């Protein structure tokens, strides 16, 4: 019996060493891409340092887009996980490295001076390249508008990238995400100017958008950081984290837009 068992084991090993054979003539309909979102970042440094950090250190990203020229570097295969999101959450999903594609844009971010904080604008050619890349990714993974999010959306307590100068409206004009109608926002703002909702309302509406936000009804620093993240995207002229009438109007319009989809 001992020799029979050994013989069978030897045959199994021989089969494994010759390679597995698969029949791919059937394909299941119950499937979709593992990719749920695309997360946008800036690198906070120049191209050479960005390439070094994203290829030789622990942090990584699927793509890096330079400034001039706006070269697209593919650093991690989309089928593999890049380490770009860190401790993150969006729409109830946590640790988003596993379900996202990370895109880094070479950009210095901001620097502080006695006169205030200054942000570096994004090069137009860089955004042109980004839009082409985003359209390709979204088509291949069948992602809906709204799947493109900021690092500051998924980690508002510790990240601000891609910052208030990132041109989200250009992405909306390219059909990559929905944008609140300014006329409707203005109408809602007039209504909220008469009576501003409670902090609890703001927290609930932010949570509906996907943010991880406290729900205790207090205007603490964590809540202000989340409000500022929303403002940087939809109202970059002022992102002070203040729960004002215009921010309430934006949240109301965004909620109505989500309900229609």
UniProtKB/TrEMBL annotation:
MF terms (GO), sorted A to Z: N-acetylmuramoyl-L-alanine amidase activity
N-terminal signal peptide: 1-21
GO biological process, one term: cell wall organization
CDD domains reported in the protein's UniProt record: PGRP (cd06583)
Top-level taxonomic group: Bacteria
Annotated catalysed reactions: Hydrolyzes the link between N-acetylmuramoyl residues and L-amino acid residues in certain cell-wall glycopeptides
A matching Pfam family: PG_binding_1
The protein's enzyme class: hydrolase
Any one Gene Ontology cellular component term annotated for this protein: outer membrane
EC code(s) of this entry: 3.5.1.28
Keyword Lipid metabolism: no
InterPro entries to which the protein is assigned, alphabetical: Amidase/PGRP_sf, Amidase_domain, NAMLAA_amidase_2, Peptidoglycan-bd-like, PGBD-like_sf, PGBDSf
Keywords on record: Cell wall biogenesis/degradation, Hydrolase, Signal
The family this protein is said to belong to: Belongs to the N-acetylmuramoyl-L-alanine amidase 2 family.
Protein's recorded name: N-acetylmuramoyl-L-alanine amidase
Organism annotation: Pseudomonas guineae
